């Protein structure tokens, strides 16, 4: 059994790194704050006698050897990076719970059959460089390393420069190595478990999604002298596309997701008709077919709005992920562990993207969810109870043990 | 007669201060670049033997004494600050043409009866602190000095701090002193003179306007897990208000103006439903009654959109200026000067706000416009011909002489 209090204390210690005044966390990927989180994680791992490797995209692997050197490792983990104004648990829970698994094994002097490895994936959030699940996606070979290194943040800093800047461009190849299984514990980030009073979510898969970058080009012009007929207002075009994204989402019912989360008016000034606007767009849905339909139809609709306003639109699809089912065997280990521990459970599809989604393409994978208050995440007010964290970590511990000793 | 080549050379020298790669100017008010423009202006004035005073809001006055000490001064000038990506002539033309007037009087050894004063007004553009015509408005007593000092830019720097930072918080009171007249030469910033092939615009007044700041508060939430029914999307509300502003503008025909020029998604992230959006709104029209009607109706319409989206709106009216007619006597001096010089002319209402609008409340005022290419302004591509600048400066020179010697 894991130690719930030790788990919580370490979660709170990690939450101090990049703590915000409103009780959240700002630990943006590959910043100095992220480096402090990574350094702390490495120190904790090394104190347990674990050897930490870093790969070329900054993913960190902390290995504990097993009894049988011929066995493939069982992986588990999550991410330590956060949203610009994120919560204390999104990502950190899975990493710190993994650490608690390692500590418990050491305390109990348990040697597993297979080796086990705890992972901290780089840039899961995607908010800085535009590719969520970046570290796991590069590891899984979905994002090419050179292209990923060249991605830029809004200030023009590349992923490669940022990795070097914090000293986490590691020497190990960023590509999949043979592994027996991957388990990830995460907060649900949605309202379902809380609403139904379930302690543990058995995640059977994750929904499909497609992300875009949009650039609208109009013409800077004087707000006082430029008549309606002469305007090429890039922000008006963006506004109408934002409305379209919302409409397309609602047409798909309560499972629809469509979001413009980031928008910048270039060289904005109060008395200037905007000449250039850049923004992000993303759609999600549990069914791949719905995302395919949106990806086929949305660009032309957005284009039509831009053309009507005489403000050309450049739309770039950043990535598209189909619905990802998890491995029935691994999911079953989670189900059995939760049952053995007596927790109330529910099967659930993940609304968020997770590193597990990309890892699942090469390694049998499952995820465990715990409830979070009001379903709120990507918000500084994100909140969970210590017992909820403990329940998730217990299930994680049992599932890993079962798999590593099978 | 003024020297067109010397005028152009000084315009080009000023345009080098804050020059942008695309041929425009970035000389934002009260920045170090603005200081360099001011220092250059002061150096030029002092080389002519003019005494330069600076008032408490940073307005600069360069005085040339007249023959009759009992006469009130004739004022003229414009502004040296620019938009973030502005043009070389918006503002600078009126100041540098004023300098050319001074140079010509010195060359020709002309003593005017009344003293004359060339002014460089602080922060005409309004793009940094949200109040256009800030220096002239403070001088005219429309903006209170303490409130103006406390205005903040997007980084939280106050006007008072910025003035001290560049050493231009002067010792003279920022309030109207008795003056005989004010003349301002400016590019039209619109398409009318060019379209009709007129060399000089006789400006009879300026249109009414109202400016707002808007803050929409929604709730940060995960883009992948938050269903349509649970969203409080601040950007969607802003988008619909942007659409409303455009609609209200178009309903008022070709004289209508409605612009959202500046917008910021606070803590924006691609996979976060926006929790806070800040933006600017402004409306303009030649008729005061139309602006009054908009100021009476728009807030409730915007409010209704915000309420329907469950994202409260805080709307702050920054200022409201009625239509400002100019002084018939001063306008007539401009008309006579242009006729004497043989230029083709047209009477015109200013679409842009100008320092002349506030000065006109306490001093008899008139303005002179020159055409600009494609009517384009608040754009780096803003462009005029040397002959156009020369024509405007000739008219300015003659109007000032006529008034100062009447
Ligand atoms: N878990 C999580 O919030 N991931 C961020 C990537 C996404 O789903 O947008
Ligand atoms: N002349 C000019 O562009 N003034 C800026 C103030 C405004 O009209 O918005």
UniProtKB/TrEMBL annotation, chains A, B:
<dbReference type="InterPro" id="IPR011650">
    <property type="entry name" value="Peptidase_M20_dimer"/>
</dbReference>
<dbReference type="Pfam" id="PF01546">
    <property type="entry name" value="Peptidase_M20"/>
</dbReference>
<dbReference type="Pfam" id="PF07687">
    <property type="entry name" value="M20_dimer"/>
</dbReference>
<protein>
    <submittedName>
        <fullName>Zn-dependent hydrolase</fullName>
    </submittedName>
</protein>
<dbReference type="GO" id="GO:0016787">
    <property type="term" value="F:hydrolase activity"/>
</dbReference>
<comment type="similarity">
    <text>Belongs to the peptidase M20 family.</text>
</comment>
<feature type="domain" description="Peptidase M20 dimerisation">
    <location>
        <begin position="209"/>
        <end position="298"/>
    </location>
</feature>
<dbReference type="InterPro" id="IPR002933">
    <property type="entry name" value="Peptidase_M20"/>
</dbReference>
<dbReference type="InterPro" id="IPR010158">
    <property type="entry name" value="Amidase_Cbmase"/>
</dbReference>
<dbReference type="InterPro" id="IPR036264">
    <property type="entry name" value="Bact_exopeptidase_dim_dom"/>
</dbReference>
<keyword id="KW-0378">Hydrolase</keyword>
């Amino acid at each position: 059994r894991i130690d719930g209090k030790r788990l919580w204390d370490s979660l709170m210690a990690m939450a101090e790194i990049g703590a915000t005044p409103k009780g959240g966390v700002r630990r943006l990927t590959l910043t100095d704050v992220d480096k402090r989180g990574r350094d702390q994680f490495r120190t904790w791992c090394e104190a347990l006698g674990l050897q930490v490797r870093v790969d070329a995209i900054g993913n960190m692997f902390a290995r504990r050897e097993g009894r049988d050197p011929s066995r493939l490792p069982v992986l588990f983990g999550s991410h330590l990076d956060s949203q610009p104004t994120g919560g204390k648990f999104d990502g950190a829970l899975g990493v710190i719970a993994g650490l608690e698994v390692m500590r418990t094994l050491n305390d109990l002097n348990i040697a597993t059959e297979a080796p086990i490895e705890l992972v901290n994936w780089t840039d899961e959030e995607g908010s800085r460089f535009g590719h969520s699940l970046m570290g796991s996606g590069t590891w899984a070979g979905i994002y090419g390393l050179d292209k990923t290194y060249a991605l830029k943040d809004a200030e023009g800093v590349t992923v490669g420069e940022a990795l070097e800047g914090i000293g986490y461009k590691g020497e190990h190849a960023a590509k999949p190595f043979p592994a027996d299984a991957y388990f990830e514990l995460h907060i649900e980030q949605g309202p379902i478990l809380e609403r139904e009073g379930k302690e543990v979510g058995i995640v059977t898969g994750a929904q499909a999604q497609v992300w875009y970058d949009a650039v609208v080009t109009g013409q800077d012009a004087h707000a006082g002298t430029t008549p309606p007929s002469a305007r090429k207002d890039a922000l008006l075009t963006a506004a109408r596309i934002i409305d379209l994204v919302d409409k397309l989402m609602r047409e798909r019912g309560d499972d629809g997701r469509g979001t413009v989360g980031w928008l910048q008016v270039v060289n904005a000034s109060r008395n200037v008709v905007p000449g250039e606007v850049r923004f992000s767009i993303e759609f999600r849905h549990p069914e791949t077919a719905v995302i395919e339909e949106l990806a086929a139809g949305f660009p032309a609709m957005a284009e039509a709005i831009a053309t009507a306003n005489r403000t050309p639109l450049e739309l770039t699809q950043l990535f598209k992920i189909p619905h990802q089912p998890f491995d029935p065997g691994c999911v079953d280990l989670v189900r059995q562990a939760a049952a053995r521990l007596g927790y109330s459970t529910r099967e659930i599809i993940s609304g968020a993207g997770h590193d597990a989604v990309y890892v699942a393409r090469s390694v049998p994978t499952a995820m465990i969810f715990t409830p979070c208050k009001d379903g709120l995440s990507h918000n500084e007010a994100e909140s969970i109870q210590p017992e909820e964290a403990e329940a998730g970590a217990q299930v994680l511990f049992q599932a890993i043990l079962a798999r590593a000793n099978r």
